[in-house]
Amino acid sequence: MTYPKESEILKLVFIDRIFLVSAFLFGVCGFGFGIDVHDPEIIKQDGQYYIYSTGRRGGVLQAIRSRDLQRWERLPAPFTSVPAWVRQEIPQCRGFWAPGIHYKEGRYLLYYSASTFGSQRSLIGLASNKTLDPADPDYRWQDEGKVIESRPGMDFNAIDPALITDAEGGFWMTFGSFWGGIMLVQLNPETGKPLSEPYDIIPLARRPSVPQNPIEAPYLIYREGFYYLFVSFDFCCRGAESTYKIMVGRSEEITGPYVDAEGVAMLKGGGTLVVQGDERWKGPGHNSVLNDDGVYYLVHHAYDAENRGRPTLQIRPISWTEDGWPKAQEPLADVQWMSQNAASNGSR
């Protein structure tokens, strides 16, 4: 997730307030809605799909759920406020960005990004739960503190976490935004925190020939002998002016080297296009990938130019070429709130 200027932030806040009014009015009148979401991370539990995403309209994080990937309902947010220890570390942090979630050792591990716009002073924290279902008696999010952090002058920015268990059972987190690019660190599966101290950071992708190195939002999957690294190039968070696009490379080893379909190394700016914007849907990016019993979906946000540049959930089936590269299909139709009044219930 990148960082708009102050004027852009004020514009986005204004758009949010307009949308809240519109959501209420249209909810009363019974019209359909797309899902307001930014940086969606998807996971499945007991036949239901859960998405965790950047906090919206004053919320710390957002959580939604569906039985069919098309009708969604809001859930209680994992946090109702920013923990005191995070405010002490990053005083201007008002909410969390771009979470990652993974099931490991009998727990759901939710990783969250704490930072401020344009700053390298960032950290990734961890919360855990035995279940994602708020109706389950065991449902309780436990904050487990800091996982990794960055400070000015370091080679990475500690936001945008995504998790993977590799083919041998190793547990890893990829992360990064601008600065030195996309990084990888191995985690202890019992604690969910780095396996070694100091961190053993492995660079995976960057854009050394492009000003500001605009690459972020990594996501790793393993399929048929290859690790696929999805990333977002260019700029989010500018509404209909956003230029995000989703790129991919692959490697036979989780630590790389990752190359695109033309053989260009991702550490040298390589990447094969998966999704880019069109006339209506601008800046598609910050994706996760759902493997639903062998059927893959690309889950991401895009900015709706016909709705004041609102970030909106898109879910695209993935097909695979004969030589094993992902191709994103058209987004699922009628992805919207299960009940219309849910659209106006965004503040927590």
Account of the 3D structure:
The chain has 348 residues and is mainly β. The protein has one domain (6-344): Glycosyl hydrolase domain, family 43 (Tachylectin-2, Chain A, 5 Propeller), CATH 2.115.10. It is built from two helices and 21 strands. The strands form five sheets. The chain has a five-stranded mixed β-sheet with strand order 1-2-3-4-21, with no helix packed on it. Strands 5-6-7-8 form a four-stranded antiparallel β-sheet, with no helix packed on it. Strands 9-10-11-12 form a four-stranded antiparallel β-sheet, with no helix packed on it. The longest helix has 24 residues, at 6-29. It is globular. The model is unreliable at 3-32 and 340-348 (pLDDT under 50).
Helix content: under 10%
Structural class given helices, strands, pairing? mainly beta
Q: How many separate helices?
A: 2
Taken as a percent bin, the fraction of beta residues is: 35-45%
Name of the top-level CATH class? Mainly Beta
Number of strands: 21
